[in-house]
Structure to design on (422 residues):
């Protein structure tokens, strides 16, 4: 056998031996264990926080799970925004995992509201997503006001709560807000009717108090950065409303009239009105504040009864009959003084004019065309005083006075007085 054939046979034999042993070089180190197949999806993704205001950042962390065997570091990572409603961006991101199999990125929300979806991919281990809610609010440029109407109710009473979001340009529409209890000792309940602000920038909730007294605190929130609270006081039902007086002070025809009805019990404030089917006396009116007024020119004498309705802030109503007497005008006005006490020359003097009838107060004056001696004066309340000088001639002095009463009636009378020497 030739040398060539011998060598060929040896090569074939060696090849068969190597193939039977699984031999053959694959280019890998024969000392490395075979690589395990990767888990179906061993990637998790978290955001802190998951709710941000517009333009605010969040820390995004991608992690390889415990099911990943072997070294976790230096694995390539890719971060991306899968859904971008706010217009956000990834400002910075790790390109590889660290010793614990983690990689981080900084996400910053855009200027719009909505929900952004971020994704991290670590091949060949899979990918994961996380949602970040972006609130279209800015506590620096926007303000929130919350009110309760009413803010005092009885147990099981109701109130309308309104939260209004505004900025320098006015109401801010299209922003999602929430209502919640900060404190709820009454056991109250909330039911939102609007979750997104309308053209007026408001969201509304209906509140119903529980069956225990206390102060419930309701909060309206637009994301983590802007919120406001309102207090609602819950009381036990109070006593029945009482109206007084039931008989008003008497009025007089041709005389302006004013009196006051008051209420107690129930829950202040109170609103007064004339009950349906009733009527006020002629010339008399009732104000919402309980003030009863009479017009001097249109009131008519008589005894009247009318029914008033009083409603408190909790909606309770009380009907009460009120009595009022309008009297005839008082007797005619008359000046009863005609002769004053004597005046002594050089001695200080004082006397008073008197009137009766009509309606006080009276206002006195000297009638037009008449006059007093220069050394005498007449005050509006009817006092005449002065001192006659030594040059005064003794004798009778006369003048005409007039008096005006509260009804506008005027009466005049001539007054005389004797002046004598000391």
């Amino acid at each position: 056998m030739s040398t060539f054939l011998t060598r060929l046979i040896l090569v074939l034999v060696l090849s068969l031996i190597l193939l039977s042993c699984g031999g053959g070089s694959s280019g890998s180190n024969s000392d490395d264990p075979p690589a395990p197949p990767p888990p179906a999806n061993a990637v998790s993704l978290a955001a802190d926080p998951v709710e941000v205001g517009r333009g605010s950042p969040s820390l995004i962390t991608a992690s390889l799970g415990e099911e990943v065997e072997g070294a976790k570091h230096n694995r390539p990572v890719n971060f991306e925004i899968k859904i971008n409603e706010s217009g956000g961006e990834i400002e910075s991101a790790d390109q590889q995992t660290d010793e614990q199999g983690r990689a981080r990125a900084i996400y910053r929300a855009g200027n719009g509201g909505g929900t952004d979806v971020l994704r991290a991919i670590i091949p060949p281990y899979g990918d994961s997503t996380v949602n970040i809610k972006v609130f279209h609010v800015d506590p620096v440029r926007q303000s929130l006001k919350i009110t309760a109407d009413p803010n005092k109710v009885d147990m099981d009473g109701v109130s309308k709560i309104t939260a209004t979001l505004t900025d320098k340009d006015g109401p801010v529409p299209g922003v999602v807000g929430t209502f919640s209890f900060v404190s709820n000792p009454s056991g109250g309940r909330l039911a939102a009717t609007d979750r997104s602000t309308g053209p007026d920038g408001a969201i509304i909730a209906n509140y119903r108090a529980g069956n225990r007294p206390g102060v419930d605190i309701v909060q309206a929130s637009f994301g983590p950065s802007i919120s406001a609270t309102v207090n609602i006081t819950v009381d036990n039902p109070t006593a029945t409303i009482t109206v007084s007086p039931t008989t008003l002070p008497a009025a007089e025809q041709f005389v302006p009239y004013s009196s006051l009805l008051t209420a107690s019990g129930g829950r202040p404030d109170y609103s007064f009105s004339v009950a349906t089917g009733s009527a006020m006396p002629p010339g008399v009116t009732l104000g919402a504040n309980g003030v009863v007024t009479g017009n001097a020119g249109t009131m008519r004498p008589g005894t009247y009864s009318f029914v008033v309705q009083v409603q408190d802030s909790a909606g309770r109503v009380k009907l009460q009959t009120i009595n009022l007497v309008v009297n005839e005008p008082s007797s005619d006005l008359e000046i009863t003084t005609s002769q004053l006490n004597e005046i002594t020359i050089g001695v200080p003097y004082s006397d008073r004019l008197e009137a009766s009838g009509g309606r006080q107060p009276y206002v006195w004056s000297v009638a037009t065309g008449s006059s007093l001696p220069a050394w005498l004066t007449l005050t509006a309340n009817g006092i005449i005083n002065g001192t006659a000088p030594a040059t005064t001639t003794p004798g009778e002095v006369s003048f005409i006075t007039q008096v005006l009463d509260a009804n506008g009636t005027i009466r005049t009378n001539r007054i005389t007085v004797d002046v004598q020497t000391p």
The two ends are 192 Å apart (CA to CA). The helical segments are 3-20.
